[in-house]
Amino acid sequence: MTGIEIFGAWLSIFLTVCVLSFLYDDNPIYKLAEHLFLGVSIGYGVIEIYFGVFKPNLLDKLMNGELGGFQRSLSIIPLILIFMLFSKLVPKYSWLARIPIAFIVAAYAGVKLTGELNANLMTQVAQSIPDLGAVWAEYGFWSWKHDGAGVFSSLFLVLGLSACLLHFYFSAPQNKAMQQVSRFGVLTLMLSFGASFGYTVMGRISLAIGRAQEMLGLDRLPEQVAQIHPRIATVVSAAIVIAFLVVWRRRQGDDYTPGN
Amino acid sequence: MRSTIPLVLTFVIGLFMVGEYFIPHWRYHQFTQVFLEWGLILAAAAFLLGLFNLVQVNLPKVVNKEEDWGYKLVMLAALVFTLVVGFMGGTDRLSNGQAYKWLFDFVFVPLNATMFALLAFYIASAAFRAFRARNLEATVLLVAAIIVMVARVPLGEDLPLVGEKLPQFMNWIMDVPNIAARRAIFIGAALGAVSTGLRVILGIERSHLGSD
To answer: How many structural domains does chain A have?
Structure first.
């Protein structure tokens, strides 16, 4: 590993500790890391957009001599639209930006109109209707071996989906029967929300474990650990951040209230 | 004129894009692809507009040393540095040894991961305070969340009696009730997208054009 890489590994551990200091309170060292993250991530976004969108789709086409006159002049239109979009920065001409905005919105509204109908409406409905005979032949009523696949699950999927849709149907008064179906829909939704919540929590915890592994040097090869000494980096970073927090807290004096 | 031109453009372009579904000709498809490419370029330009707006808002605060100017300076400096090393790196920017790659590996990735990891603590604390089995719906939510969380760790598989079946039951929750609810949401969202798309194309929905 080069010196700059070792410095980078120490910096990444220090920044991790800085962000974790938010668990104590919103403090200047956290804000510093937060703003650094903002700056770098916006810069990263701009660079990737430039090399991923602008360069291949606009600049290369404008500068490519091999392209015919018509194709080249076609590429000038988005350039003009970009200038119109940037007129938003000049209040007097900001109305010009409506034209490119109208273009983007119209193009995607048109595509979405048929795309959503095809992909999310027809396909989703079609895929929800099970072939019960085939399901029974393959899995029976319920198969633990195949994570509960079977006739019961297929019926649950259709009934749950229908009940969820009926729960959001407000065009008719909800009589007693509708209320029962709607309640089943709510329970299906709750099962889904609970599962999504658990899944999200586990995803976040896995990220936290990843950070802890880096701080303890568990995700690196032994020779890299011997060069970086991540545990020392963690202790030093934590000592710096804690010392800073103590000084900051003392400077705040009696006015300090957690969360401020 | 300031409103009419954008409205007419919305109608014409929107109708043209819808037409692709009914006229599956390669030449027509070529035109819609060109329009979509322009849309992509313009969406990227809108991101750049946001960047200019960010500088326009924050730079005067740094110059006038207003509240929190130091943090804003750090943000702008990090932004400029990332842009400089990114443009200098060019198409090789993500190769080993490049400053942009170093910045990505040792600043962006750890900060990004830690920011999201931090949410684990707050989600857990919020759940501890809010999750109460007050009624059947709340109990179902709670039980589903616990099953998914426990079944995804090795400890869950070692639980007596239920451990063996727990991961399979978790997969059933993810594959059946979860898919049923998500499909219902997708179908609702698709209906919403279709009606909003129609409203936009027909000029009934004009909020994207702003006010005069």
So the answer is: 2
Same-domain status, A147 and A211: yes
Mapped onto helix, strand or coil, the DSSP state of residue B83 is helix
Same-domain status, A141 and A211: yes
A51: containing domain = 1-63+229-260
Residues A182 and A250 in one domain: no
Nearest by CB to A110, which of B14, B112, B186?
Answer: B14
- What pLDDT is recorded for position B123? 84
Nearest to B145 among A86, A148, A197 (CB): A197
Query: What is the C-alpha separation between A75 and A96, in angstroms, rounded?
Result: 19
Of A99, A254, A105, A257, the C-alpha closest to B3 is: A99
Q: Is residue A143 scored above 80 in pLDDT?
A: yes
What is the pLDDT at residue A260?
45
- Measuring CA to CA, which residue among A114, A109, A71 is closest to residue B30? A71
For chain A, give percent helix, strand, coil, nearest 5.
85, 0, 15
ipTM summary value: 0.85
- Chain A, 54 to 113: residues with Cβ < 8 Å from chain B are 54, 57-58, 74, 77-78, 81-82, 85-86, 88-89, 95, 98-113
Query: B153: which 2 tokens?
Result: 């760790």
Residues of B with Cβ-Cβ distance to A82 under 8 angstroms = 41-42, 45
In terms of domains, do A141 and A202 share one? yes
Structure tokens at B27: 């030449």
A20 assigned to some structural domain: yes
Claim to verify: residue A149 and residue A205 sit in the same structural domain? yes
What is the spatial distance between Cα A255 and Cα A218, in angstroms, rounded to a whole number? Answer: 42
Contact between chains at A45 and B188 (C-beta distance less than 8 A):
no
* Chain A residues touching residue B185 (CB < 8 angstroms): 164
Which of A4, A16, A31 has its CB closest to that of B102?
A4
Query: Is A210 found in the same domain as A247?
Result: no
Residue A187 has a pLDDT of 95
Is the pLDDT at A67 greater than 70, yes or no? no
Q: Does B125 touch chain A (CB under 8 A)?
A: no
What are A47-59's pLDDT values in tens digits?
999 999 999 988 8
If you average pLDDT over residues B25-53, what whole number do you get? Answer: 91
| pLDDT, tens digit (0-9, with 9 covering 90-100), for B139-194 | 999 999 999 988 888 887 778 777 788 889 999 999 999 999 999 999 988 889 89
